[in-house]
Specification:
22% helix, Urate Oxidase, 2 domains, 305 residues, homotetramer, globular, alpha+beta, 8-stranded antiparallel beta sheet, two-stranded antiparallel ribbon
Chain lengths: 305, 305, 305, 305
């Protein structure tokens, strides 16, 4: 028997890069959490502790900050593509790089009804995400872009049922025609193709995909969270041909009707207890049948079926 | 020497009460985290394990849910006053009650530009808070109301300096004319008086106090976070005579300018690293000189100087 | 009406100070989270933004690290006393200082049954705490020491009942002769007196107080969590005359018996669901009747009734 | 174009199952967090909202609790195998099941030097994990077992260097002969084979694998975290032929030497600041060259390269 090194990667996680654009009095701000990693021929580092081929994680950190200036941050996706392709130039032993970005959105503070020039309040709803995976060099280079968000918390106070399900000896759940449905949604969508050069407006795409998903959540009469997710994904795929595939992870945040009968009170879906654990967890993906292969796009992307 | 029981209280913490108003097709939702506690003559329970005078925390929980229906939740403050005064009726051994409420705000999901009737997305910025303390019964009863919020994250990308400070042998900090100032603000304001009956519109008050604070944060040229907080508080006190006192707790969330010189890049306040720890922590209170005594209003309220 | 500055303080929170003693091959490690704050005459900073009297929080940070070397860390208490008294010398406008320390304990990694010289594994049970409050200077100086721990998670699988409690219209809880009792205990004890010079072995004290509390928790037949806490405190006060007062905060981490009858199974206290929220919350203090006044010892100490 | 349902699964996450063995006065306790999920033919649920083939997550929850009694919890692995194979019997539309278990360890409270019969204190170091994946039925059934732990926090105060690394234009890191190396280690090891019937003593295995890893961490002079991980894995594979493969995820928890020179103090590796973010992140796997294929063993296992 001999011991074999398997898949491995290394990088610098959670660089908190804040980029302020201050060319005019009206500042813009991009607030990012950037994780970079490299894959490649790093066997010497593992087996012998030889760092000759290892570009330090500290250098990756420096580059993440320098690129916020050198390249700028017009969007998480654009910045991540620039950073990822750079690392394959900078580190010849690397065969691939992955850049995972979270973005936190800031709104302008309203003063007399107008957004202030340089004062902001954090929006605090979902976190926007982008995961860019780069593999190979020159004409062999492929770049996958996965956009998305985490923790978009949505709730329907009606328009959701759950019934007709499979039963076994351990089934006690009552069927219901009307329940609260709530989830803290993570969605990630892969853009078709593997080119580093794209003329996509990532920010416009992001807002539009999110708006379609929210509207589908709102207007779908839900017979299951699975069905709602499928509908959300379908609507996006139909409206955005450049989106190849979408993955959802949706904890079913249970809201249980509280029994108020002991106190002589009716409770027709008016008072609920929001439960923490356990929670249902639904994971699903939808794609267009004519989309390109996903390749390495989903490798190491957290939390997907 | 003999052992003496000192201050004590007990209750049920973090009841996740969700109240849906569904009298019309256009639902309303109030999403609360409710903690209740009682003080009083509970020595027997401590010294002898005798529960005769102890209204169980489970009962407190039941009441918190039942009151969301019986009394309703027009505001966290109104609901907390009702619940707190109820407990002094329900539990004769209690001499006082405190009800602490957090509220999470939901916005309607936009569908074709209109807010949906029963589908919501959680706003996710600050958490609104109310702490109501009730002491005594009948004509002796006093009710203190402290409204507020936690975790309102704000940032100024300029208009903030820090210089002219005291120096000692351990001082290495450089003075600065221009820095990012950011904080995750907790503010709590005590309303004047101790009456259980008030004709305050708590929701309007809340939005207005928050708006004044945000505007003051935005428009104050800041020579110190202390000065900014003081200005925010002063503006509220001047506009709202019913507010007696305000307490702030403001972590100074440091954003350090990254040194890009080693890479041949200028950094004129454009690229920052957002640091986690340590952080400055500024706590301050302001009050009107003619306000009533605070009494028990701040007892057990978390996180204040 | 005029606006008045009330209580205030400022400092640097959560300095993660790690001190390694490496004078011999057998290293020692102290791993601390240190928060410092100053009170005093800081009105100019608040009202006018004038920093003349403000020793920066950055300087406080530097001092916390420097003192880990200059003074050393024989215990959190000893280190905090040194740091707190220093700040009153360094910052003449300050009238008081508070140093709050958390300590994380590391055990030596076992290699062939022996503890390794310089390799450690974090123990991960409770966090040890010390809060030292210093007020005034020279002969007027008073120093309060509050030791303690947070998050010591303990559980009894029997030997706990809950019955005979007060009932009202909202009471549905069944009485029980046998339940799981579990809590994540925070305890803090104030040492008698206000001298800066003490010949206490803080580390020995800490271990002994904790051991007494644990043994009392284990061996007390519990009729209420209140009674258990009281017994734990009483045993410490009787064994340690230098301890003046003890405060407990104990969330009652509910473990509910799962109803297995629908599946034809008996459940005689064998299968439980550990619930997250809501939880009971019991806060209590015990003191010796002949102890000194607590003065400022508990000011701004988090989480106590 | 048509929309296609891709990979999907659903289940109940984070069932907090506590199992007490109380057949004698000396109780035993197993404290678990159990997540179950099913894969299979669930297209109707997604596309049409038809639940006919869906065994509810509520039923999965019931079963997790019932099995703690019916089957018992001799180890997380044994319990998870029983639960996973059960679900393929209970839910004919399912083609596979995954059971992920976390276990929290409790020690007996010491009273007069003896462990108490029914009073426990939570150990609080690492969390033990087991992920069991079951695919197919009858003679086609395959069962993969991955044991492991998360968050084992270890530190070496010397015996670690980092030098000789690759440099580019963004490299500023100084080489070092002596640094603190610390990580919060996640390790998972796959057992060889796919049989549901195994005569492994999972608890003994767990303790032995962990002890080997800890000893290797302690005694390896480290030229890189990669090399340390490789050494830890190699030692386990050499001692445990039943282990086929090991995966590590190791955040490099940086401890930076604090510059005390401005204060006239030397700092020869004695005072460090423990940083939060960013952190290095090293992920690596090692396997024996003659091991069986991993199949579905790692599917949906969180956090691995």
């Amino acid at each position: 028997m001999s011991v074999v090194l398997g898949s491995n990667r290394y990088g610098k996680a959670e660089n908190r890069v804040v980029r302020v654009y201050r060319d005019t009095a009206r500042h813009e701000i991009r607030d990012l959490n950037v994780s970079t990693s490299l894959r490649g021929d790093f066997e010497d580092a593992h087996v012998a502790g030889d760092q000759t081929k290892v570009l330090p994680t500290d250098t990756q950190k420096n580059t993440a900050f320098a690129y916020a200036k050198e390249h700028g941050v017009s969007s998480p996706e654009d910045y991540a593509i620039a950073l990822g392709t750079h690392f394959l130039d900078a580190a010849p032993p690397a065969t691939g790089a992955q850049i995972a970005v979270e973005e936190y959105v800031w709104d302008r503070i309203l003063v007399d009804g107008e957004g202030h020039d340089h004062s902001f309040v954090r929006r605090g709803t979902e976190t926007r995400t982008a995961v860019v995976t780069v593999d190979g060099r020159a004409s062999e280079q492929r770049v996958w872009v996965v956009s998305g968000f985490t923790d978009l918390v949505v709730l329907k106070s009606t328009g959701s049922e759950f019934k007709g399900f499979l039963k076994d000896d351990y089934t006690t759940l009552a069927e219901t025609d009307d329940r609260i449905m709530a989830t803290s949604l993570t969605a990630r969508w892969r853009y078709d193709g593997t080119s580093a050069e794209r003329d996509t407006d990532w920010n416009v795409e992001y807002e539009d995909v999110k708006a379609i998903m929210l509207a589908a959540f709102a207007t779908t009469y839900s017979r299951a969270l699975q069905q709602t997710l499928y509908g959300m994904g379908k609507n996006v795929l139909e409206a955005h041909p450049e989106v190849a595939e979408i993955k959802f992870s949706a904890p079913n945040k249970h809201h249980f009707v509280v029994d108020l009968a002991p106190f002589g009170l009716e409770n027709n879906g008016e008072v609920f207890i929001a439960a923490d654990r356990p929670y249902g967890l639904i994971e699903a993906s939808v794609s267009r049948d004519d989309s390109s292969e996903s390749g390495l796009a989903w490798q190491s992307v957290p939390g997907f079926a």
